[in-house]
Amino acid sequence: KYLAIEALWEADDSINQRGFTTTQSGFYTNEPNMSNLIREAIKIGYTVVGYDDFSKDREKNQAKNLFQKTIQQDKNAKVLVLAGFGHINEKPSKKKNMMATEFKLLTGINPLTIDQTEFYNDQQNWLAIVDTTQIPKDLKKLSADIYIINQLSYPIQNSQEYQLIIPDSTKMSPKKYDNILSIYLKNELKKDIRPIPIQNILLHKITSSLSLQLPKNNYQYIIKDRLGRKILEGNL
Asked: H-helix or E-strand containing 57?
């Protein structure tokens, strides 16, 4: 029911009412894949929650915010937390406990922690859940419950091919990788002037046409130079 995201800075009610991120939503949220994740979560019914804190007691306050915004208000809440990997460390420390440890101390709930950042080679499985007790101690950098081995590729759901025709490509810089193509959902641009594109493509050369595989929708494209100045825009 709840998706708690460390990356979110803006007020929860703003993003849940709007349904998508903007350039003011956070730092990591400016990356299209992160924004696509949030966009999809809201679409399928999650309530997005921001819980980060930037004080000296960041770990403790993260845990407190997480609890107060979810389980304290809804005792049956099921919460999925997307956090920086260090924050999910469950090993108590004399110097400083991390957020997962503080959450357990505060609530009495032992969270299921999943490390997706460590590389663990398994040539026999493309997708696997590995209990951390099976991992040699010298390979573990933090204390989490399980590791995920994920070597799958993900096709775009309900996609189709779009042909982008650029009417005046002579306006683009001739230098390699000097132009960036951003693809926006047209309805989001109508609501807000600062939405995050669903995809950014760094162009390695001047081109007058481009074939793109995208989910079915109505899009608008903007091409900018390396200084962020708008060069071209149009519908897709």
From this structure: none
Query: Shortest CA distance to 179 belongs to which of 144, 129, 233, 224?
Result: 224
The tens digit of pLDDT for each residue in 74-130 reads 999 999 999 988 999 999 998 999 999 999 999 999 999 998 876 666 667 778 888
Which strand (E) or helix (H) includes residue 174? none
Instruction: Quote the pTM value.
Output: 0.83
Residue pointed to by tokens 């900018």: 224
The span from the CA of 63 to the CA of 85, in Å, is 15
Q: Binning pLDDT at 50, 70 and 90, where does residue 140 land? A: low
230 DSSP β-pair partners: 224
Residues 6+ apart with CB under 8 A from 123: none
Contact (Cβ atoms closer than 8 angstroms) between residue 9 and residue 27: yes
Q: Are 213 and 164 in contact (CB under 8 A)?
A: no
